[in-house]
Amino acid sequence: MLDMILAAEAVPALTGIDFGYTLAGVVTGLVVGITGVGGGAVMTPILILLLGVAPATAVATDLWFAAITKLFGAGIHGVGGNIDWQVVRRLWMGSIPVAIIVAILVALNAKPEKVSWLTTAIGVVVLITATGMFLAPILIRRAQANRTADPTRFRHFQAPATIASGGVIGGLVALTSVGAGALGSVAMIALYPFRLTPHRLVATDIAHAIPLAVVAGTGYIVTGLAAGIGIVVDPWMLASMLLGSIPTIIIGSFLARKVRPRGIQLALASVLLFVGVSTIFPMVAH
User: Fold this and answer.
1) What is the pLDDT of residues 21-33, one digit of tens each?
2) Contact in structure between 53 and 47 (CB atoms under 8 Å)
3) Which of 16, 46, 198, 249 is most deeply buried (CB count within 10 A of its CB)?
4) How many other CB atoms sit within 10 Å of the CB of residue 149?
5) What is the pTM of this model?
6) Which pairs from 193-200 meet CB under 8 Å and 24+ separation?
7) What is the total count of domains within the chain?
8) Domain residue limits at 254
């Protein structure tokens, strides 16, 4: 991890607002507001592939970007009463402890050794995200069939499976910043096929992601301090991104009540499919 953090430090620090990052924030905020998906899956690959940001800085900065941006989206969705707080609490029971554990392990392992899997891991999670978004209707139908066929067994399975899903998501987010929205949505579709309508799904997913991103983002700050080289979050990059994302996530959150998100999800899944492949195999992007 240290060599990646050192690489991040080698990137010239921003000394003011950069509108390239602002544009990335505009796109990401709008997508997250409408679909609940894309905070990490969209922004992290953009930072790494298109804007040349070192992986550790991209992940750490994106986690705080996602937390602050989604806070505004959750406010809009919460006013509409769409957040299912019982589901959110179950996800937190799994995701927050695992994210803390992963953050501690990363901090303890902050030493001069090559960790070449971070970019690849981001690409793999993005590919899983895209696949889950493509298969969402099939997952819904299968989950509804299981829920109807044996409702008592399904209900007994629902809570522990939600906690376990939260644990997996928490670990992935703490390592890659990807998964809180996209993989969380896939898990909730499978576990709550009737209870979570599309609008409730988006709102619940956004609410779950906020403290998770804060915990994971803090882990990267601790990692930088443990390595003795300071904080890896780039404040000017973060400010530039938020300048674009905060207005558009508010707009997207209002639009989510009026548009069908499936078409946007399919378009986003197609983009993520290319992004995931390009992240794993950089030559594809050239």
Assistant:
1) 999 999 888 888 8
2) yes
3) 249
4) 9
5) 0.78
6) 193/140, 193/143, 193/144, 193/147, 194/144, 194/147, 195/84, 195/87, 196/84, 196/87, 198/260, 198/261, 198/262, 199/77, 199/80, 199/82, 199/256, 199/257, 200/82, 200/83, 200/84
7) 1
8) 2-285
